[in-house]
Design brief:
Layout (H helix, E strand, L loop, with lengths): L1 H40 L11 H29 L5 H33 L10 H19 L11 H27 L8 E7 L2 E9 L2 E9 L5 E3 L5 E3 L5 E6 L5 E2 L1
Parallel strand pairs: 4-7
Antiparallel strand pairs: 1-2, 1-6, 2-3, 3-4, 3-5
Helix pairs in contact: 2-3, 2-5, 3-4, 3-5, 4-5
Amino acid sequence: MEKIKKNIEFIVGLVGLLGIFYSIIMFIYNNIYQQDCEEFYKIPAKYFEGDLNEKILYIVFVIGLMAILIYPIIMRNQDKKENHETKFTLIFYFGYMLIIGAYISALNVHFLDAILKNISTNIVVNKNGIITRIVVCFITYVGLMGSVFWDKINILKKSKKIVSLFVIICISLNVLLLIGSTGCVLSKSIKDKSNYEIMYVNNKKYVVLSEYDDKILAVPLRIGKDGQYIFSTSKYEFWDRLQGKFKYEKLDKRPEIE
């Protein structure tokens, strides 16, 4: 009973510390976000408020993904220690990694796309053909299978060192893709925002930039001859949501601010 009580106290204390930590991070992030918005849109920082939830969800997603990948490695090592490994368990782990590998391969293509976009807006994996996807999928499967069935490489006598090195490279590339894409997501600034809510009022277009005191902050929107979206942020106004109609649009490139 005493042990349970101590565990409960520990959990409560941990939750409290996490709450304090989240509040500090949110305060710092919100201040950075407000300054970024003021610098980019040329509108006072006080009208903006950062939302960290999307990035926290991404971190939770990454942690969950790591748990899914580590699971077969831990369980197989446990089976070997307890001499419970059979042909059935090997087939199960192999099938598990085949299914997970297909999902991770698609994610790695997306991760690589995100990293390249962060380097240059003109580079997109999806436009580079099927070869890039095949290479990414191959590297993903080699890395995943190698991490789970590492001991089976010992069967290869002459080529053991070469195969081991290649597997290590593939595992490293998988890790780098995950780290790189996570860095891209967490380091995104307001300048990288591409999804905007467009408001239509009396046949005029406005882009919604923020919400403040139950009102939306919107600025006139016009489109240049080259398709460039132009935000007239010097003419920002506050509107009631009932005053217009709304839809979301994805911008192909960074808007021009005037």
